Amino acid sequence: MEPNTTTIALGLQKVRARIESIAGKAGRRPETITLLAASKTNPAECLREAFAAGQTIFGENYLQEALMKIEALRDLPIEWHFIGPIQSNKTKRISENFAWVHSVDRKKIADRLSKDRPESLPPLQVCLQVNVSGEDSKSGVAPEDVSDLAAYIVKLPHLKLRGVMAIPELTKATALQRSQFRMLREAYDQLKREGHDLDTISMGMSEDLDIAIEEGATTVRVGTAIFGPRRYPIPEELAAQQRNFDKETPG
Ligand SMILES: *Cc1c(COP(=O)(O)O)cnc(C)c1O
Questions:
Q1: In this structure, are residues 102 and 127 in contact, taking their beta carbons and an 8 Å threshold?
Q2: How many structural domains is the chain composed of?
Q3: Residues with CB under 6 A from ligand 1
Q4: Which range marks the domain in which residue 168 is found?
Q5: N or C: the chain end with fewer CB closer than 10 Å?
Q6: Quick one: which atom of ligand 1 is closest to the CA of 206?
């Protein structure tokens, strides 16, 4: 049997139906909500399957894993989004291979992504990742520093600021989650008031996409609900490749 063939198409159908239903109830048009398939740990064949079922936007977290899939799926017109934490020695290959980056959270990374963006490509589309939970362990710029970072990024020649992104605290407390989505929405509104031309609020995953859409998400990033449980741990072979790649790519 093909890996997860029918399951993935079915997963996509269900997620699309869910988005439509929640959007409808929230008085929003479903077509204003973009579905990004968060495909980390799923092999290229699974992405191909999702593509065959109409999914064209994929988000990846681990560079080396992503590059192998991008290579394997060259024949498909996929729009690749980078959604994972960014180390500064990875910016070149991110800039060369992705259309979007959702996880820009500091000036140094923004600088390097812009500098490394090939002239032959359109500007790299970026979102600021905002730390809405206040957890030290989380990536993201603090809400009070968002304006400053945005003002910096819009001056960079090869980046186009599109909006904001967040990964709220994983919790069953929906009121807390809602307040964190709202915080991201407020950061977005604030940037708009400051004159930035934005259209993207990237928030909501398999577990919390309902609340995210109610609170204004324009892009939801869904993995498990499409592909099934993640294939952790990443196979040892892949981890070893990543270590070699890290060694060969000085900072
Ligand atoms: C994995 C991941 C997702 C998707 O999470 P699911 O719970 O599997 O839907 C979304 N955003 C980011 C940044 C991720 O790393």
A1: yes
A2: 1
A3: 38, 40, 61, 83, 167, 205-207, 221-225
A4: 5-248
A5: N
A6: 9
